[in-house]
Fold each of these.
Amino acid sequence: MDSSKNHKESFYKGSIWDDVDLDYEKLLERAREGLEDVMENSERFTPPVPEVLHEGSKKTIIRNFTEILDILRREENHLYKFLLQELGTAGSIDNRRLVLQGRVPEKKIKERVKLYIDTFVICQECNRPDTDFIKRGRTLFLDCQACGGKRPIRTKLIA
Ligand SMILES: [Zn+2]
């Protein structure tokens, strides 16, 4: 005879499950409310998309550069350096816009901004953007405010 199994059964007997029927409607209601909360919290984050303008073949402008930073809550200099390095060009920040030298294809800019968001902003556990950097020794971690997850940022890119 398996005594541990018997013990388990008697544990569930007379437990909260016996009362479920009494308050079934209330429980259902509570469950529905809980579900709504969860859905609200996990509302999908829409990553900002750079608005790119070309001025002839000499300049490429990201018109909403500062807006992107505001949404991502990242420092101007960080994304700025990242983009210059990734796009292999020089540039400057001018009145909330990022001005890049040369004609940089829009597609390339969008890809790099997305790479930045995936690497430095989005929590891989809950897909939320509510993250901060934490430095431990020489490793930079992404610290998620939404789920408490931490992961090292694995990149050879500047941070
Ligand atoms: Zn998270």
Note: Residues 3-41 form one domain.
Amino acid sequence: MIKYILKCVNKHEFESWFSDSKEFDRLKNKNLIECIFCQTKKVEKSIMAPSVANSKLHNKQKQISNLKMKNFKKDLLKLRKFVENNFEYVEQNFANKVREVYYDRNSKKNIYGKATQYEKEELKEEGIDLVNIPWVDKEN
Ligand SMILES: [Zn+2]
């Protein structure tokens, strides 16, 4: 069985199944094929991409997005390294430490740590915007 997308002169498109690729021509020569919408007999086959080509294309797309992911990850790792080298990690009371740094005008300290959504919102209300950094593992 083979599936064709058929198109009539009035641009109606519909799918139809044939036992093989020659059956369409055979039926068309006998004027047995007509548009299911307007019943015209002026119907042509639309070109259909074989499913093999589709899956190849799909794999290619996958490869490309994996590649992009890799570069993206590299960038994130660079970012992580930069933060680790230039920022001080605050394990506990991060939100309070952020306030300390923020309100101390002489402080040039850069800190990083984890904040809950609630803490983030609280800080934001005080005018302190935190930057979210996607933290990627160095492994894998
Ligand atoms: Zn039609």
Note: The longest helix spans residues 51-86.
